[in-house]
Amino acid sequence: MLRIHFTGDDLARVRMATRPDALWETILSFHRLRERRRAQMFGEWRTETRTRLNSETSLLSALVPLRGYFPDFLTPPEGIGGLEAGLEAIRATDAGRLQSELTLVSAGTAPEQQAERSVERPAERAAERAGRLAGLAEGKPEPLARLISVLRGYHRAAIEPYWAHIQARVEADRAVRGRALLDGGAAELLCSLPAGLRWRAPVLESDYPVDRELRLDGRGLLLQPSFFCRGMPVVLRDPALPPILVYPAAHSPEPAFGETGGTALGPSLGRLVGHTRSAVLQAIRYGCTTSELARRAGVSLASASQHAAVLREAGLVLTLRHGNAVLHTLTPLGAALLRGGAPAEATGC
């Protein structure tokens, strides 16, 4: 059981991450790559990623066991600013922290590992892992540079081609949480988190492989929705680090990645969708329910639902269920259509 203890100050400092975190998605996707579950959701992605992976991943396997503890330094807060910013933060990790966290991994004795593993790892496996991590644990520049290279190569194979889809799912989840915050404040936001996370004021509880008590002590909590986080949420092991809760972004039962990419569309295609669908896209711009969509676009409820379905099938809109309603948000492709193909940075969209 994970129990996160809030004070009044902590509730006032709950915040949502502004975008997907490049390193959290990278590390958590490595778990998805090696598991056999969720074949419908991630099967095609696994096949495509393994085809592109031409760099060896034994170092990642040693650092990130199938279950249990992996080093906190692999997911620094700078990862929210993009892959390169996160990699530079890893490169700058203090040697003492490297050694202490890698010792837990190489020895296979972290409490999380003991509790989560279904079978005990043989001693020779632990010795093999320790050998792979020896140079890295000593803070030598060459092994650290190799780790950076392996992470960059894996990210390019497993994450980069799908970033627009990942971003769309995280943005859709942010829209759901944002509405909850506006409707009922921080408590309602915490109540809206995925199944398995339970707000019992002043404690947020979740099923977890080990017993953890995380006291925020006025620091607040960063909520980070993650595309590749499935099942239980994740927190950092070191309670002294800035508190973050990484939780599963909402998914539909369909395959995680469709055939529509994140390519921006030009202004000419914007004229093809017609006045009504253009108005529907504009109405969905900041997220809305079907009834709100009908009111904003000036169409009937049935017509709004039909237009949203067509736009969803075209990869321009995502639809998530929120309580008794559904919430529509734009994908990066839909936002690009509204911009007429202009870069997001240029329009602020």
Cα shape: globular
Round the mean pLDDT to the nearest integer and report it.
Answer: 82
Cα distance spanning the termini:
40 Å
Number of helices: 16
Strand element count = 11
Cα gyration radius (Å): 22 Å
Helix/strand order, N-terminal first: EHEHHHHHHHHHEEEEEEHHEHHEEHH
The largest β sheet comes out as: 4 strands, mixed
User: What class do helices, strands and sheet pairing give?
Assistant: alpha/beta
Strand content: 5-15%
Molecular structure report:
The chain is of the alpha/beta class and 349 residues long. 51% of the residues lie in helices and 13% in strands. The protein is built from 16 helices and eleven strands. Strands 3-4-1-5 form a four-stranded mixed sheet. Strand 3 and strand 4 form a beta hairpin. The longest helix is centred in the middle third of the chain and has 29 residues. The protein is globular and about 65 Å long. The C terminus is likely disordered.
What structural keywords apply?
349 residues; 4-stranded mixed sheet; alpha/beta; 16 helices
Secondary structure: elements and pairs:
Blueprint: E1 2-5, H1 8-12, E2 14-16, H2 22-34, H3 39-52, H4 58-63, H5 83-91, H6 95-107, H7 111-116, H8 123-137, H9 141-158, H10 163-191, E3 197-200, E4 203-206, E5 212-215, E6 221-226, E7 234-235, E8 244-248, H11 267-272, H12 274-284, E9 288-289, H13 290-297, H14 301-313, E10 317-322, E11 325-330, H15 332-338, H16 344-347
Parallel strand pairs: 1-5, 2-6, 6-8
Antiparallel strand pairs: 1-4, 3-4, 7-8, 9-11, 10-11
